[in-house]
Specification:
By secondary structure, this protein is an alpha+beta fold. The protein has helices spanning 4-7, 10-32, 58-68; strands at 72-77, 90-96, 101-102, 107-108. One of its GO terms (molecular function) is serine-type endopeptidase inhibitor activity.
């Protein structure tokens, strides 16, 4: 009787790499959405992300951002489709429409 590993080790390697990639992607996603992470600043010293607004009322968060920045501020219900273009003059606030709470750290783009 022959062992599967001796004939075709490539399937095992591919499976392990896939599992590792999914684990790394999940860790990166959790780290980038962590509301306790430090504030990200642009080279100019301007804030580019507002993790402290996660969990706050979306309307209040929008008012806060409109006072703090000259960027266009948009509120977007979670799950809605948005364009993937990067615009340095835009901040999106993603919120849960059921609770009106910010669900993801608003950032420039």
């Amino acid at each position: 009787m022959t062992c599967l590993l001796s004939r075709r080790p490539s399937w095992l390697v591919v499976a392990l790499l896939l599992v590792a990639a999914v684990a790394v992607q999940g860790a990166v996603r959790r780290a980038s959405e962590d509301p306790t992470s430090s504030t990200v600043m642009a080279a100019s010293g301007e804030k580019t992300e507002w993790p402290e607004l996660v969990g706050q009322d979306a309307t209040a968060a929008q008012a806060t951002l409109e006072k703090e920045t000259s960027k266009s501020v948009f509120t977007v219900p979670m799950g809605n489709m948005v364009t993937m273009d990067y615009r340095p003059d835009r901040v999106r606030i993603f919120y849960d429409p059921a609770t009106n709470k910010v669900t993801k750290a608003p950032k420039i783009g």
